[in-house]
Amino acid sequence: MGIDRVRWGIVATGNISTSFTKDLAVLDDAVVTAIASRSQDSAERFGAEFGIEHRFDDYQRLIDSGVVDVLYIGTPHPQHYSIARAALQAGIAVLCEKPVTLTAKQARDLIAVAVENDTLFAEAMWMRTNPVVQAMFADLAKGVVGEPMQALADFGFHRQQLAPRLLDRDLGGGILMDGGIYPMTFGYMALGRPEEVKAVGSLNEDGVDLSVAMAWKYASGAVAALTCGLRSHHPFTASVSGPEGSLLLPGAFHHPEYYVRQTASGDERVDVPVHGLGYHYEAAEVMRSMRAGLVECPALPHAATVEILELLDETRRQIGVSYPGDDEYLGG
Ligand SMILES: NC(=O)c1ccc[n+]([C@@H]2O[C@H](COP(=O)([O-])OP(=O)(O)OC[C@H]3O[C@@H](n4cnc5c(N)ncnc54)[C@H](OP(=O)(O)O)[C@@H]3O)[C@@H](O)[C@H]2O)c1
């Protein structure tokens, strides 16, 4: 793809769209040309804040505008699917917030549409592109702690005033989909796809999950213990261990500033330079993949997106969390 500066379009003007757009400024070869919101006022406010030329009061109008190469989608999870599908069908690359869809079936469909249209599609699992996380997993792959046999990861916080979408089933509410996906991604990166999954969860009266604990088991005998919650402030740490020691990510493990190598020679803090808010790394990977003409970003693999959604489907089934549309999209 012979593009000098990749033209980004941003869908939605909420929290994460704001952080992502701020961080794109780190990249000289990226330019934000369009913003779309459900309201013109919000599009104007966001456009003025970031100096964005084209401002739309409708997501589809941005997709039809012809002024972007790639779309970043920062709406609540249930809206991701139809927006991503429309963009991919129009031949616009997509970087979509996590979880990309509510079900694995929907994610498989988006990947098929991406392949059909020869257009890049990636889940914005920014943790995977964080340089500290990458360095820690490179150590693991080198065998610094031996064969990994245990992973622990935890993501949870308590606030008096939670963002309303977190408790709203119609908006994909619950900590599992929003936060649990990080410990699950850590467990998956450390040990792969588990053979057996067990989960327990506490739900509120609306059927929204507030606390979840998952146990994963592997044919090798390895296990993972993964937790997430909205009722207490958690340490936000993650570790992977083998017979020779452990590799630890301090809080917040999904965008850490360093990691710790714990082996027979003692504890060693390993610093890896990181800058910005941490979102420009995934954007750079997407642009690199677009320029290489790929439909999949190697750092944000489709298989991981789908398999983690399959694990989310199964975990939701075990703890009894359902969303509108599950009848059509769960299974298959
Ligand atoms: N990677 C990360 O670090 C990270 C962090 C937080 C969240 N996320 C993910 O990003 C997504 C959005 O989270 P957020 O915290 O940014 O949410 P948010 O602050 O509530 O923003 C969501 C935006 O989506 C748009 N939207 C479209 N349909 C909507 C609806 N029916 N109700 C409410 N808003 C709607 C709105 O923008 P307009 O009014 O402009 O259309 C809204 O501002 C989620 O999928 C979440 O998992 C990722």
From TrEMBL:
Protein family? Belongs to the Gfo/Idh/MocA family.
> Which Pfam families would you find in this protein's record?
GFO_IDH_MocA, GFO_IDH_MocA_C3
Q: Where is the GFO/IDH/MocA-like oxidoreductase domain?
A: 140-247
UniProt-recorded name of the protein: Putative dehydrogenase
Q: Which branch of life, at top level?
A: Bacteria
Metal-binding in keyword set: no
Under Gene Ontology molecular function, one entry of this record is: oxidoreductase activity
Ranges for domain Gfo/Idh/MocA-like oxidoreductase N-terminal come to 6-120
> Which species is listed as the source?
Kribbella voronezhensis
